[in-house]
Amino acid sequence: MLRPRARKASYDATEMLNMKRSLLLLLVATSLTVPAVAAEKLIALTFDDGPRPYVLYGVKQPGAAPGMLDVLDRNGVKATFFYMGWRLTPKTWGETPHETNIGVTCLDAAHDVLKRGHEIENHTYSHADLRKAEQKKGEAWVLGDVERGAEAVKSVTGTKPVWLRPPDWDLADDARGDLEKHGFRILTISGQNPVAMRDINSLDYLCAGKGAGCPKPSLAQSVVKVIEQRERHGVYTHVLAFHELTTTTTQLPELITALKAKGYRFVTVTEYARLVKN
Prior knowledge:
By secondary structure, this protein is an alpha/beta fold. The protein has helices at 2-33, 53-57, 68-74, 106-115, 130-137, 139-157, 173-181, 219-231, 246-261, 269-275, and strands spanning 42-50, 80-83, 119-122, 163-164, 185-186, 199-201, 237-243, 265-267. Helix 5 (130-137) crosses helix 6, helix 6 packs across helix 7 (173-181) and helix 8 packs across helix 9. It is globular, with a radius of gyration of 25 Å.
């Protein structure tokens, strides 16, 4: 009577060992097929409408906001700047009378942005509303304005930019399709983009000037709240759309600190797209 039990015990032990081996092989196979970055929390921090030297470096006035580039450097953050082509022409320092001339041209600032390790992408040449421009001037004008902006960026970086953010995210479907055929990748708040590549509109432009419509209780806390809402739906990768504004600069330290505390890592748009496989 003991021998059958011994054989059964031996059989059970062998089966258990085989099951453990099978489970180990399954775990190894799974680890090889699931990217290690799948669970990584990523932020692509982006800024439109520059270069604006008075924002990037600050102005020498009591109580003035610090320079955006210094804030990013101190926090170890690399960002992506979407630049207007007309600003990347020689001897251009900004737009009168809204921007303070600090003695640095937009072109020199753009070269410095690149030197500091940030990414520069395309925000068109003219910053016109592309949908309205297409209605008035035709699609060819829209495509030409985007290409002209791309060439301006290329004159700084040495390579043609891939990413395009249309002004106010406004772009007709036909123009979008043709731009994509020409190799451009479009960033927008539209549902046409997958969630991971869909811009989060920070609404920071509402904080400029009198700031009557600025998100409450603060711009930084408002953006963090949006991210937390996305997290509840299992989304842990985000493209944040801001603008080169002094009011935005003052909020960056709080925002960056809060997101780093949540485990987020800041990357450029190109690296972000590679890591989220888009």
